[in-house]
Amino acid sequence: MITFLRGTLDCAGNGVAIVDVNGIGYEACISASCMNQLPPMGHPVKLFVYESVAMYGGNVTLYGFLTEEERDLFTLLKEEVPGAGAKKALDYLDKITSSIHDFKNAIINKDIAVLTGAFGFTKKTADKLVAALKDKIGEAPLPVIGRSAERAPSRLRTDAVQGLVALGYKESHAREIIDKLLETEKAQQSLEQLLRSALRYL
Fold first, then answer.
1. What is the DSSP letter of 31?
2. 70, 35 in Cβ contact below 8 A?
3. Pair 5, 64: CB distance under 8 Å
4. Separation of alpha carbons 63 and 50, rounded Å
5. Which of 123, 127, 134, 139 registers the highest number of CB atoms within 10 A of its CB?
6. φ, ψ for residue 21 (rounded to 5)?
7. Cβ density class 3-26: b for 16+ within 10 Å, e for less
8. 8 by DSSP, 3-state: which?
9. How much is the pTM?
10. Tens of pLDDT along 176-190?
11. Using an 8 Å Cβ cutoff, are 26 and 17 in contact?
């Protein structure tokens, strides 16, 4: 079983990335958010892998993720949520990666409002996710991103990132800027002020 690929990014597009590992190209299906965070072609890359083998000796499909946490969450989505095959699990994960910590807390607290508002799930899907995952996801640890960021309400961070994404900015870049702002001692607690400050850096 393949657990990760470490090599050089050969190419990426149309939902797949090809990693050159010692002269052998491995193709892995990836989410849109993963695609946006990949290094430039020709640069080193490491993808954590979920390996799927079709029944009755069919083809092997690899799914790639930038972190083990993303891979583990994909596994839960694919294997525990009714009707969620690999493609739908990747679509779900693409929404969740804006803040995995907030997603886990929403599942634990059965907070449908956060799942529909911050992550964009329909109420039907949010209900299904809570029912399937509430006993599978443990208490989400606080992310270590600086003293002020730890004190800031998690929903403020999520809303700020989503606001920048809605304006057309890449999710990975938006998260980086928001986290940097929240790390400062003068971090603004108003969503409007936080977005205004972020736009100065973009």
1. -
2. no
3. yes
4. 5
5. 127
6. -115, 100
7. eebebbbbebeeeebbbbeeeeeb
8. strand
9. 0.67
10. 788 778 776 444 457
11. no
pLDDT recorded at residue 140: 45
Tokens of residue 138, six digits: 């443990």
**Amino acid identity, residue 163?**
G
Angle (nearest 5°) at CA 106 between 103 and 110: 145
Domains and CATH numbers, the chain: 4-67 (2.40.50.140), 69-133 (1.10.150), 147-199 (no CATH)
> For residue 67, what are the contacts with CB-CB under 8 A and spacing of at least 6?
48
How many angstroms separate the CA atoms of 21 and 171, rounded? 28
DSSP line for 68-126: HHHHHHHHHHHHHSTT--HHHHHHHHHHHTT-HHHHHHHHHTT-HHHHHHTS---HHHH
Region of residue 13 (left: phi > 0; alpha: psi -120 to 50; beta: else) = left
Tens of pLDDT, residues 101-143: 889 999 999 999 999 988 999 999 999 999 999 998 865 444 4
Tokens encoding 124: 């039907």
Name the token pair of 14. Answer: 């149309």
Q: What is the predicted pLDDT for the residue at 196?
A: 78
Task: Please state, in angstroms and rounded to a whole number, the distance separating the CA atoms of residues 131 and 123.
Answer: 12
Residues 125 and 82: beta-carbon distance below 8 Å: no
Distance CA 76, CA 83 (A): 12
Q: Please, are residues 174 and 164 in contact by the beta-carbon 8 Å criterion?
A: yes
